[in-house]
Specification:
The chain has five domains: about 120 residues, Butyryl-CoA Dehydrogenase, subunit A, domain 3, CATH 1.20.140.10; about 150 residues, Rossmann fold (3-Layer(aba) Sandwich), CATH 3.40.50.300; about 60 residues; about 100 residues, Winged helix-like DNA-binding domain superfamily/Winged helix DNA-binding domain (Arc Repressor Mutant, subunit A); about 200 residues, Leucine-rich repeat, LRR (right-handed beta-alpha superhelix), CATH 3.80.10. The protein has 24 helices and 22 strands. The strands form six sheets. An eight-stranded parallel beta sheet has the order 13-14-15-17-19-20-21-22. The chain is elongated and about 125 Å long.
Amino acid sequence: MEIATGVLQIVNIFLEPITRQLGYLFKCREKVQIPDLEANIEATERSGKAATGEAQQWFNRARELEHEADEVVERYHDNKCCFGGLCPNCPSNYKSGRQATKKLSQITTHINLANTVNWSMDRPPPVGREMPTASITGQSTFDKNVTKILECLSNNELGVIGIHGMGGVGKTTVMLEINNSPSQNQGFKRVIWITVSTDVNITRIQKEVMKKLGMNVEDEDMIAERLFSASKEQRFVLILDDLWEKLDLNAIGVPRPNPQNKCKIIITTRSLIVCNRMETDLKIKVDVLLEEEAWILFREKARNVVGLPSIEPIACKVLKECGGLPLAIIVVGCAMRDKDNVHVWENALRALREATMEIEGMEREVFVPLKYSYDELQDENIRQCFLYCSLFPEDCEIEKDNLAERWMCEGLLGRVDSVEDARNKGHGLIEKLIDSCMIEQVRRTDYFVKLHDVIRDVAIRIGSTREGGGFIVEAGLGLKEALRVEEWGEAQQALKVLDLHGTGIKCSQLDFVGLDVVPSLKSLEFLCLSNLRVVRRIWKGDGDHHLLNLRFLLIEDCDVLKNVLLANVVQCLPCLEEMAIMRCRGLEEIISGGQVGQNITLPELKKLQLNGLVKLKSICENAPSLERISVRGYPKLRRLPQGLREAEMLRLIEGEKEWWEGLEWEDERTNSTLLPLFVEIKS
């Protein structure tokens, strides 16, 4: 009996620390029960607040610990005795004690964490907060864009969507409609709207996203990690509005959407380049309003005054100057609201055409925002190329090759070795301007671009305020007489491009131009003569070498012109690289006046384009650098000069099959040499 008593004393000594640990566990289990905290949170929610994500995570872990503590206690009660309850189960009790010690430590740590948790926050919107939108909603073009984007939200293969278009076209308004649309809630727990703008601040963006996800992290070093973890658990739509450069999603802590997490990121930007750098899965361009849609919006802003018989014709012209751009239509429409004075409308039309920004709101609400696009262009060189486009008349369709050549002649392309190099470099810049929504691709063809009316006004305004401007903008003003010399000032001395195309200047007695005797054109590189219907001669032929830098010569629609160059003028054109002669119905020779046996050479000529020269009989004899000839329009040209077979750089002869088959050859060698270079042009 004494032995039994001694054993029990030893067992009790052994069990005492175990029992003590279980006692602590019981007390901690009571502490981890959370009805009081939950009651406080419920009261907070009734006051318009909501539990934070941190609070929810703390509650979830507390419930887990509560359940685990119950399991330890239950196992202890189930296994504390053995032999029918006559003897303590020492191994089991020892194990329970160790489990109790471990669980006690976990519970204590978790209770202490409660002091660091941010329990409540302003209640976030259930999905996305409804925001006010502009009045272009309901237009068919607008509705089509909204429908297309909503369809993308249900396509799991499309994670990142780029909405692009020029400034003021309505990209943000489209996305506001998406944000407000009841149908946008396709299982998404959050729609998060972030306006990025030009000043990209990663920390600000992170904090805005976290706030809308119901998170609060004091340690900024942990923001990206915590944000990444939380955003993976919630299916979200992240709208990044007004993006100007690539945004590093990893740096923010936002996971890239994929078919597994089914999240979406939608960006709005003025630049297609930004869409590409963000690796968008789909790009949607927001275009200007159709004519009927523009009129509906304009009438809504200016009201019924635009329907008055005396006002409507002018109002239509005013609206046309807005070019379907919603931002401009809204600003101008509001400025002209209820104004029934014809003279006021006429003055507004003048102000728009002259890009003076006199109309109330145009400077602040249209010019300043659109100038951001100009400021964000890559460098000063491409900005100059953009401003140059304002020299073309309003609504003018500009041929890409022609534009590149003009940029070259103005020195805007930097160092180029040939006209072809200039075209290649120029086309690259044109694509950048298109991608930045500064110029537009003409829809029916890939060869032409144009400047939107409002963007052109912005360009003219920028150009007019720059010091030392290099452009005289008279395009589209319907000139009927040449500018006076004093209006040019010293511009002639530096003139590189001279183009009188499309003007109404009339010189009915003009028989010859005589540009070779004008000393002030020594810097001229690009010369375009067009629609000089009565001019018989371009050159006087006895002047000094004043066109030594001429590289490109374009002559078109000069019906009575008999030749392009005189033999003694050719030597004055050592840099001429390209000639394009088109629709000169009376032209018979490219070069005339040479002596028999005289070697007349155009040493740098690389490209010769002949189109619609029905009476043409001969072309230049010697052009050793010639690379390409293009002949269209069934000329009377029956022989190609023998010198062509010596042109080692010649790679292409284009023409109609009928013309080629009608050619006469002085020898078979010339025929066999040139035949592989011929490519038929379909009529």
